[in-house]
Design brief:
The protein is built from 14 helices and nine strands. The chain is α/β, with parallel strands linked by helices. The chain folds into two domains: 259 residues, Rossmann fold, CATH 3.40.50; 145 residues, no CATH class. A nine-stranded mixed beta sheet has the order 1-2-3-5-4-6-7-8-9, covered by helices on one side. A hairpin with a 7-residue loop joins β1 and β2. α4 packs across α5, α5 crosses α13 and α7 runs antiparallel to α9. The longest helix has 19 residues. The termini are close together.
């Protein structure tokens, strides 16, 4: 017999119909802003353009405590985007993993609900300079969400749904493990739970998906570029010049080698297994380097990119973990990068001791007690190799879309597939 709990049915009915009827909003906009100002008396609250079904949207900048447990240690400016629809509708909390911008999430569109987007502490506009690294922890970020949700629940008393994408989805799961009752349902998209700073599982997946011919095309392209280093480096510098990218922190040649190493991961993460687009190794070297730029994006290794992602790699090296580079395809061809490691992109002069138990504890909770979670993954996404697998007794569902990648969203599943998942769902 199949048992399906109300929370999962609640989600599925909305996902299948892709929308709910919006109720009439008879609350004056100014009243809502006044309520926000009452909740956050010291915050700077500015009206911003409302999109889609929202009747009012605001950028809220609060003085967030560096240490949530000790306000005396100082604050930083934390950016939040709140969009109002209807007090009776569900409220969707978006736990972004990096910087934020105001947009309408897929979940918000489905439920025509209220939306709260929280920029991750010390990313984007919420990044203090200099960055006080010791306060950039997942637990501190979780306290940010908990305190915010606790306050907003005095306004929004209906269902609460948390959601995030990639690192943001991982944050959704961490939040769920720390405060399981803060939200009714969690919907993490393509969220990894990584083991160690050099997790081998993504490479194991990369070396098994698609066709052998496709995987070999990527390896041949990697070797062709490194075997024609001078010509490839000139093409790399041309791209950098056209895009006004500076390479002082990481040299052009080092960046080229890292981009070549990154190619297989980025291809399966973002290109959906589109092997036909991979240029032939007989193509001009310039074309091959342009393809590397298209898939990997050399701006990641530029001075601007390096600075932008320092907080991310700090967290990966301290608590979240990362994946290992596969050196087999480029054996004997690296000249600058002697010991490839993503630790290269973390800040220098900072303690990077890895806490191996952090994600392990989160994963243990999520897989064994993580009720009311809907997971969304693409089968080709290397990060999917690090996805948690909820135990059969747990009230959760993991949906994996075949031949899809890191961009997988609910809208990409057909109505037929959604119904199939629901019918096969066995819970608690």
């Amino acid at each position: 017999m199949i048992y399906i709990r109300n929370t999962i049915v609640f989600l599925f009915l909305a996902f299948i119909s892709l929308g709910c009827k919006a109720s009439k909003d008879d609350i004056k906009v100014q009243k809502f802003k006044n309520q926000l100002q009452t909740l956050f008396p010291k915050a700077k609250i500015d009206s911003i353009a409302s999109k889609d079904h929202f009747t009012a949207s605001y950028r809220v900048i609060i003085d967030q405590n560096l240490n949530p447990k000790n306000p005396s240690e100082g604050t930083f400016k934390h950016y939040i985007y709140i969009s109002h629809s209807d007090y009776e509708k569900p409220t969707i909390l978006i736990t972004d993993g990096y910087s934020s911008n105001n947009r309408t999430s897929e979940i918000s569109k489905i439920f025509k609900g209220n939306q709260v987007i929280v920029e991750y502490r010390m990313y984007g506009k919420s990044r203090p300079e200099p960055l006080p690294w010791k306060y950039l922890t997942n637990d501190n970020a979780i306290e940010d969400y908990h305190n915010l949700v606790t306050k907003l629940k005095t306004l929004y008393k209906g269902k609460w749904i948390s959601s995030g994408i990639s690192k943001g989805g991982e944050t959704t799961l961490i939040y769920k493990s720390k405060y399981p009752n803060d939200v009714d349902v969690a919907v993490p998209y393509v969220a990894p739970m990584i083991i160690g700073t050099e997790d081998q599982r993504p490479n194991n997946l990369i070396n098994s998906i698609g066709s052998l011919n496709c995987r070999n095309k990527i390896k041949k392209l990697q070797r062709k570029i490194l075997n024609n280093r001078i010509e490839a480096l000139n093409a790399f510098k041309e791209i950098a010049s056209k895009n006004n990218l500076k390479f002082n922190e990481i040299s052009h040649e080092e960046a080229l080698e890292y981009a070549v190493l990154e190619l297989p991961f980025s291809f399966w993460q973002w290109r959906g297994g589109n092997c036909e687009e991979i240029p032939s190794v007989d193509a001009p070297i310039k074309n091959l380097v342009n393809y590397i730029h298209k898939v990997v994006g050399i701006g990641f290794y530029s001075d601007k990119g390096y600075k932008k992602y320092l907080p991310s790699f700090y967290q990966h090296m301290k608590e979240l973990g990362y994946y290992r580079f596969d050196l087999t395809p480029v054996k004997g061809l690296l000249k600058i990068v002697s010991s490839p490691s993503n630790k290269r992109f973390a800040p220098k002069g900072v303690d990077l001791t890895y806490n191996s138990s952090y994600i392990k504890k989160v994963r243990d909770y999520i897989e064994n007690k993580g009720n009311h979670i809907l997971y969304i993954y693409g089968a080709y996404d290397p990060w999917g190799a690090c996805a948690p697998t909820p135990k059969p007794k747990v009230d959760a569902l993991k949906m994996v879309l075949e031949n899809s990648d890191h961009s997988t969203r609910i809208k990409h599943f057909s109505k037929k597939i959604k119904i199939k998942y629901m019918l096969n769902l066995k819970v608690g």
